[in-house]
Amino acid sequence: MPLASLGSSWGKGTGRGQSSGTISKLAPSSQPEDHPFVGATVAEVEQGLILATLDYCEGNRTSAARILGISLRSLHNKLTSYNAAGMSVPAPRPRTR
User: Fold this and answer.
1) What pLDDT, in 10s, does the model give residues 35-83?
2) Which domain holds residue 36?
3) Which of 16, 19, 48, 57 has its CA 20 to 30 A from that of 95?
4) Does 76 fall in a domain?
5) Which of 60, 53, 8 lies closest to 35, judged by CA?
6) CATH number for the domain including 58?
7) CA nearest 9: which of 53, 54, 39?
């Protein structure tokens, strides 16, 4: 899955040493489409990638962790922190046998 297909909602936060108006000052036409992550923090990009991968895997945490190259425990911890921050995190899908 190409990273560019993960969505354009990233880049709304501010990073260290970056003024909150930096991104909003750029006209939409001046933001290059081939650089969708410019202005986004690493945490925002990571969060988007994790949630998009989880969606791609239809909620299967084991598959998502494997694709992302992280442990299932790391994925669980990140999803727990997103949930605690009030973000919508899909529930794990029920196991089928």
Assistant:
1) 888 889 999 999 999 999 999 999 999 999 999 999 999 999 999 999 9
2) 7-84
3) 48
4) yes
5) 8
6) 1.10.10.60
7) 39
